[in-house]
Amino acid sequence: MSDYNFAYLDEQTKRMIRRAILKGIAIPGYQVPFASREMPMPYGWGTGGVQVTAACLTPEDTLKVIDQGADDTTNAVSIRKFFEKTAEIAVTEKTGDATVIQTRHRIPEEPLGEGQILVYQVPIPEPLRFLEPRETETRKMHALEEYGLMHVKLYEDIARHGHIATSYAYPVKVEGRYVMDPSPIPKFDNPKMDMAAIQLFGAGREQRIYAVPPYTKVVSLDFEDHPFDPSKADHPCDLCGAEHTYLDEVIIDDDGGRMFVCSDTDYCAGRQAKGHRGRLSPTEEAAQ
Amino acid sequence: MDMQSLSGGFTNPPQDSSRAFRAALETLARPGTIHDISGAKAPAPVSEAAATLILTLCDPETPIYLAGAHDTQDIRDWVAFHIGAPIVGPERAMFALGIWEALSPITAFPIGTPEYPDRSTTVIVEMEALRQDGMRLSGPGIKDSALLALPDLAPFQMNAGLFPLGLDFYFTAGTRLAGLPRTTRVSDLMEAN
């Protein structure tokens, strides 16, 4: 027995969060207000995602936590340990084995299936916030489906840079109604949001929960003459050779040398285990 | 107060309610699917599925409307002891429980406001049985189309037309649960063919 209530939160709080999640599922892309609790970690470390995960976990679940695609960064490790201690659930780094995946700023490369839940950590849930700081006004804009301002912003990008310069937290329209912030995932991940798994978004500091049910239309905003482009670095992964994954650029010496590696560590390791090799992979002899 | 009102709660509330919530989440996110949900027992005629659902989602902050034969002193006592939710009329209800005939007309329930469409009633409809036939469902959560036997057609079509406002439904029978959010478009299988 753990000294904590199952999954840390008290039952009354979980009921309140669960009701918000269900209304979020019923109104895809709409931000449901909820009474976010203080968590034993600072805002910005995924307090919203942790509360959503805590409300969803059952004792039979297997949890995976990633931060920018990696399972072994501080944020991911501490959240995983938090739930190992407070919910005594199984954890994994393998995307396919997980039933609940909490993520900060990435969608795993391996397609998610039915029976999986993807929980996003969200810093600023309101896509219109940087265009209109007043909550009363943005709420009215969502109510009236008044999203002209967002298109003006994207147009100004084109006028200034020749293309839409927004490369992460790229706004999407969900099921033809609500414009939604997909959290700061790279726009490379946007097309994956049309998926078979349930997607839940938690913003702890801003006290909002929203959701995208499976098989829901998620369209990245664009213009006919400037269609959405999910761009990525023009390189293969230097460790596994993948040409279809989102890459991190890593500086490797003082002379400007650099390498590109998959941001999804589990996917990259899986490919290497299957024998895929990249430009900087250790040779077979060196590995032995 | 009858002793029956004091029993029938969860054996292990955190674990039991977490499993019940996942069934509620899966059924609402995938309309047309039917999941088992159990663990709580309320006085008749409340089904085990409906009892488990309200015990998982309701508390003193969620006014409940008990419709028709579901509004008995035994059930009121059970709700008071296990949940503590105020019993109210349909116009103030966050949750409503009853059979379809008793809940109709569903226009009495709050459907949310344009700025807060989430402030609408979740309606729990007790059914004789749940079957995957009858009406054709499409919309978010459904890959192509799904089938579910509904107690009526027009009210659900009207409700879907209110989106983003509208009511969200759960259907319960025995220990079985199905969900129908406001986003689901409903058509008659016979007419569609």
Quickly describe the structure.
The complex is a heterodimer of chains A (288) and B (193). Chain A is of the alpha/beta class and 288 residues long.
Which segments of chain B are poorly predicted (pLDDT under 50) over 5 or more consecutive residues? none
Q: How widely separated are the two ends of chain B?
A: 54 Å
Number of domains of chain B: 1
Q: What's the SSE pattern of chain B?
A: HEHEHEHEEEHEEEH
The major sheet of chain B is characterized as: 6 strands, mixed
Tally the structural domains of chain A: 2
- Strands across the major sheet of chain A, in which order? 1-9-8-5-4-2-3
Q: What's the gyration radius of chain A in Å?
A: 20 Å
Give the CATH level 1 class of chain B: Alpha Beta
Q: Within the CATH hierarchy, at the fold level, what is the topology of chain B?
A: Rossmann fold
For the biggest sheet of chain A, the summary is:
7 strands, mixed
CATH topology-level fold name of the largest domain in chain A = Rossmann fold
Helix content of chain B: 25-40%
Write the CATH homologous superfamily of the largest domain in chain A: Bacterial phosphonate metabolism protein PhnH
Structural class of chain B: alpha/beta
Shape of chain B: globular
CATH class of the largest domain in chain A: Alpha Beta
The biggest chain-chain interface is:
A-B, 47 and 39 residues
Mean pLDDT of chain A comes to 95
Which range does the strand content of chain B fall in? Answer: 15-25%
What's the end-to-end separation of chain A, in Å?
44 Å
